[in-house]
């Protein structure tokens, strides 16, 4: 069957593509284990410099998902699964409301509408975020916490979660929205996510570069390593619809770490000289967004499906160094 990843040239999209190629099979909406015969990456930029791009199953559609034709060229009748990852991230969606609405909401709706035209409803995995919650929150959130986003990115993710659940209830898709924790450590360059510093304060010092942290050291974040996130996305895909009876939204398990604890982990794992490359300069916009996000979840629904977390932030730092 054909599997489509939007945002396939992005950080998580590329890791997911590599994992799916290695795995070779997925369970379709009818519960049948199917060979992945085609893996289609849709992104505004082309994925490059990955050995698996030579795999004969991989094709790329390079274009803007706000253009319906781009999405229509990827979603063909043999499409059995769609992983919808393409998005503008939190900092950009907050800075530019219109771009956030067009990419994060309008394009998601277009993609969902295209899936309705398929003879058999596909599995549809939407990557949501803990940013759907904010404001006065309990210390630990259950899966059924009401959605109270405090930024446009979170509001856009929340709208799409409701659409995914409703269209699944109607049998138009077999959807699931996975609320990912902050994924760290992200390799490469900083991105426009408000949480980007959570990777920067580990990645840059390890590369011998100074890093300025814009959030308070006391800010606490719900985090997960890239490889665990990809494993949990696949577990979310594989879960039977019967395990998600009244909502398709799942808070993905993670660990709670303060920014200060992140730097302490860096000091333990890589030494004082490396940790000393982190300095602090509060950016009120970043600090407000990050402080509005939830810090801990029971994540019972995800755990009951088999999703797992990293053992500690030290392990997350070590995993990044090993890579
Ligand atoms: N990384 C995290 O910490 C995190 C946390 C929670 C949720 N998420 C969600 O997971 C998904 C993937 O995140 P990521 O970290 O890989 O982000 P990323 O920015 O690395 O990847 C997103 C990809 O979407 C593509 N894209 C953006 N606008 C597009 C457009 N108009 N047309 C086509 N492609 C477009 C980008 O080119 C990019 O390759 C996103 O939906 C994000 O909101 C990520």
Characterise the protein shown here:
The protein is an alpha/beta fold. It has 12 helices and 14 strands. The strands form 4 sheets. A 7-stranded parallel beta sheet has the order 5-4-1-6-7-8-12, with helices on both faces. Strands 9-11-13 form a 3-stranded mixed beta sheet. Strand 2 and strand 3 form a beta hairpin. Helix 8 crosses helix 12. The model has no long low-confidence stretch (mean pLDDT 95). Bound molecules: nicotinamide-adenine-dinucleotide (NAD).
Helix and strand topology:
Layout: E1 2-6, H1 11-23, E2 25-27, E3 33-35, E4 38-43, E5 58-62, H2 68-74, E6 79-84, H3 90-95, H4 97-116, E7 123-129, H5 152-169, E8 174-180, E9 182-183, H6 197-206, E10 211-213, E11 220-224, H7 226-238, E12 249-251, E13 255-258, H8 259-270, H9 272-275, E14 278-280, H10 284-292, H11 300-305, H12 313-322
Parallel strand pairs: 1-4, 1-6, 4-5, 6-7, 7-8, 8-12, 9-11, 10-14
Antiparallel strand pairs: 2-3, 11-13
Helix pairs in contact: 1-7, 4-5, 6-8, 8-12
The structure holds nicotinamide-adenine-dinucleotide (NAD).
